[in-house]
Amino acid sequence: MISAADPIPFENRTIALVGLMGVGKSTVGRRLAARLGLPFADGDDEIEQAAGMSVSEIFATMGEGAFRDGEARVMRRLLEGPPMVLATGGGAVLNAETRWLLGTRSIMIWLRADLKVIAARVQRRDTRPLLRGKDAYQTLSAMAEVRYPLYGEAHLTVDVGGGGHTDSVEAIVAALDTLRPSPGIEASQRRAP
Ligand code: S3P
């Protein structure tokens, strides 16, 4: 059951990173959590713990549908819990309820990078069942077509990939700062008659 709670204030929200696989959500998320002094959770790791098997094994033995159901359950549990930095799996946004929870209970941040950069990165590892035996660039391009409008529902979009992970963390921190009420505006409001 989804809790019927009103959208929670931004300062109490989980910071949820969304975006295509290989964009660096887990590594950047872990560092961001350390930088902000928040706990960190990785959606895929949580699914693996709950299922007692790897993402690849879940896809192979139960199929993508079962994986997506498990993913939605894990997202609900984490997004209804205390604030944290959360790295979501690239396909978590395909679920409408997860998107609603991300929109109302998290600060949803789309980490966006050039598809060629991501394709080169994901080819170094063979842990992603949706890429196995396929051309990474073509597969990611097809995913982008479906998912970019969904990632586009994020509160913030941060372009990453040009520099290192430290640059990405700083870019996210700067983007989060834009959500704070401007002290300048507050001061001028205080002076208003
Ligand atoms: C997937 C992304 C993966 C993992 C699964 C499916 C996707 O997570 O959840 O292989 O559909 O994009 P990462 O984005 O962390 O690689």
Overview of the molecule:
By secondary structure, the chain is α/β, with parallel strands linked by helices. It contains eight helices and five strands, in the order E-H-E-H-H-E-H-E-H-H-E-H-H. It has helices spanning 25-36, 43-51, 55-79, 96-105, 115-122, 136-151, 165-177, 183-191; strands at residues 14-18, 40-42, 85-87, 106-112, 156-159. It has a five-stranded parallel beta sheet. Shikimate-3-phosphate (S3P) binds next to helix 1.
Summarize it.
The chain is of the alpha/beta class and 193 residues long.
- Strand pairing plus helix content: what structural class? alpha/beta
Mean pLDDT: 91
Net shape: globular
Uncertain runs are: none
Radius of gyration: 18 Å
Strand content: 5-15%
Count the E strands.
5
Helical fraction = 40-55%
Topology, please?
Elements: E1 14-18, H1 25-36, E2 40-42, H2 43-51, H3 55-79, E3 85-87, H4 96-105, E4 106-112, H5 115-122, H6 136-151, E5 156-159, H7 165-177, H8 183-191
Residues 21, 25-26, 44, 55, 89-91, 128-130 line the site of shikimate-3-phosphate.
What keyword list fits this structure?
five-stranded parallel sheet; 5 strands; globular
